[in-house]
Design brief:
There is one protein chain. The protein has helices at residues 6-9, 11-29, 38-56, 74-97, 105-124, 128-146, 154-184, 189-195, 202-219, 229-235, 238-244, 247-263, 268-291, 296-313, 320-348, 363-366, 368-382, 388-401, 407-434, 450-468, 471-484, 498-501, and strands spanning 63-65, 70-72. With 508 residues, the protein is mainly alpha-helical. It has one domain (6-501). The model is unreliable at 486-508 (pLDDT under 50).
């Protein structure tokens, strides 16, 4: 068999890097007075090519490159496609919503693309130092993007909070890597998986796991590491929040799956109860806090904390069951959450002059299409059948039920109760949008451009596809789960749960 060139193992990252460099060079060569909106189109084309390259990697044999630091497998391809799709949608929304006279447009698009490089590399890395580098590439880009609206005051505040707390969390991750190296003498994930069970420094490995979990759970905004989320979401531009709330989280969840299921599966008795507690805290704290919010973005920020809890419920599943369910939920949440923020971007505008829930009153009358789409994405976030959110929760809770302990059943009951709480604030916004507007001057009707219209079409189609015919996406998630080869007691890979195996092709 002809060996695969190492460059093919990171082809999507290479394409995204070249796209970002090209954007910076073009931006620097243009006169200050020249419009730069079309640079977003260049970024979208580069991201589309990276998505195609990710799918092309399915034709490659599974394996590693660059001395065992990066991997190509169905697991990495699944998350590469997901991240590239998220970035493409965020770019299309930005094309039609960033003001023509906004500052540093070229840098804005380049930062999104460079952030995608870090996110994709994070999902492919099987060496902890590469994991750290990829995380920093992604984080630095998103720190800057969070403060893009520097004229508002809240933009710099969001960036500073995100940077300070993010740096603190990254230090925990890096210290955990140092401890795992001290205990095993390596930072290669597969080697750690082989050496950890027989290591004499068991306490050091447990401490390393705890440190790494702190860093990763911060990135997914799980409670109690969620305090940065509402302020950053409120201060950052809505297209950036659409990216922040999904892309880095998908990459961080992919890393979390690697750490607990592939690198340290023998510590299941340590990390499973911990993630159980974090899942319960995230669902409960996120939903209860969201009930009190009047600002739409802050409400969705707390909602994202709750959804992190729903996804973490899948980690109660044994082996491949939990991996497949978590991967599917990440895809479903990305589609419906980016869609919700796309509508919010159009309604509130770049300056977000309509930030409150009551500002959406009568939306379905003055902009019927946007009003209907907002309600659609909200009911998907609730988990109503025929939407991706339904099967996302269904598979996540099914994975939790597959746990051999009674803790899985308790977790599902808590999750269902929290889903009922979440319905209250989602439906409140939906009812306000469908209610007649109050007397007085009505806000201007939002304009839906070609680019943002294409993004909405993509997001609606994906949400419906995952809700009506989830079989293909779940099969891809299951294939990715098998490549992680998650062992259970006895050393064999866990079988796919019968509930997940008998995937319905249409929603019940």
């Amino acid at each position: 068999m002809t060996p695969v060139p190492d460059i093919d193992r990171i082809l999507p990252e290479v394409i995204l890097t070249l796209t970002g460099v090209l954007l910076m060079l073009i931006d620097a060569s243009l006169k200050p007075a020249r419009k730069r909106r079309w640079l977003g189109g260049v970024a979208a084309i580069g991201t589309t090519l990276a998505l195609w390259a990710s799918l092309w990697q399915l034709s490659l044999p599974e394996g590693t490159g660059f001395f065992g630091t990066v991997e190509t497998s169905t697991f990495t391809v699944f998350f590469h496609v997901l991240i590239c799709g998220i970035v493409l949608a965020a770019l299309l929304v930005s094309l039609d919503t960033l003001p023509a006279n906004s500052h540093h447009q070229g840098e804005y698009y380049a930062l999104i693309v460079f952030g995608a490089v870090g996110m994709c590399l994070l999902t492919a890395a099987v060496e902890l130092l590469v994991v750290f580098i990829a995380l920093e590439i992604s984080s630095i880009s998103t720190y800057i993007l969070a403060g893009y609206r520097k004229q508002t005051g809240r933009g710099p505040e969001a960036a500073i909070k995100y940077f300070l707390l993010g740096s603190f969390a990254t230090a925990f991750l890096l210290y955990g890597i140092a401890l795992i190296f001290g205990a095993t003498g390596t930072t290669q994930i597969y080697e750690i998986a082989n050496l950890a069970p027989t290591s004499e420094n068991h306490a050091l490995i447990v401490a390393a796991l705890a440190m790494m979990l702190v860093g990763i759970l911060f990135k997914v905004s799980a409670a109690p590491f969620h305090v940065w989320t509402p302020d950053v979401y409120e201060g950052a531009p809505s297209p950036v929040v659409a990216l922040l709330s999904t892309g880095p989280k998908a990459a961080a969840f992919a890393l979390l799956l690697r750490v607990v299921y592939e690198m340290l599966p023998t510590l299941h008795s340590y990390w499973a109860p911990l993630l159980w507690v974090v899942a319960v805290l995230s669902m409960t704290v996120g939903n209860l806090a969201a009930l009190r919010q009047q600002n739409v973005k802050r409400m969705l920020a707390y909602s994202s904390i709750a959804h992190a809890g729903y996804l973490l419920a899948a980690f109660a599943g044994i082996g491949n069951v939990g991996i497949a369910a978590a991967s599917f939920y990440a895809a479903a949440y990305a589609a419906m959450n980016v869609g919700a923020f796309a509508v919010i971007t159009l309604v509130s505008g770049y300056d977000e002059k309509l930030p409150l829930i009551d500002d959406y009153r009568g939306l379905i009358y003055r902009a019927p299409l946007l009003g209907i789409l907002l309600v659609f994405f909200l009911i998907s976030l609730i988990g109503v059948p025929f939407t991706g959110g339904f099967f996302g929760k269904f598979y996540s809770f099914s994975a939790a039920m597959s746990s051999l302990s009674s803790g899985g059943v308790t977790l599902v009951i808590i999750g269902l109760l929290n889903s009922g709480i979440a319905a209250a604030y989602y439906l409140r916004l939906a009812v306000v949008a469908a209610s007649p507007a109050a007397e007085g001057p009505a806000p201007a009707k939002p304009e839906v451009g070609i680019a943002v219209g294409a993004a909405l079409l993509l997001l609606v189609g994906t949400t419906l596809w995952l809700g009506i015919r989830p079989g293909a996406a779940l099969h891809a998630a299951q294939s990715g789960a098998r490549t992680l080869q998650a062992p259970v007691s006895g050393g064999e890979s866990a079988p796919i749960s019968p509930i997940l195996q008998a995937t319905p092709q249409t929603a019940p």
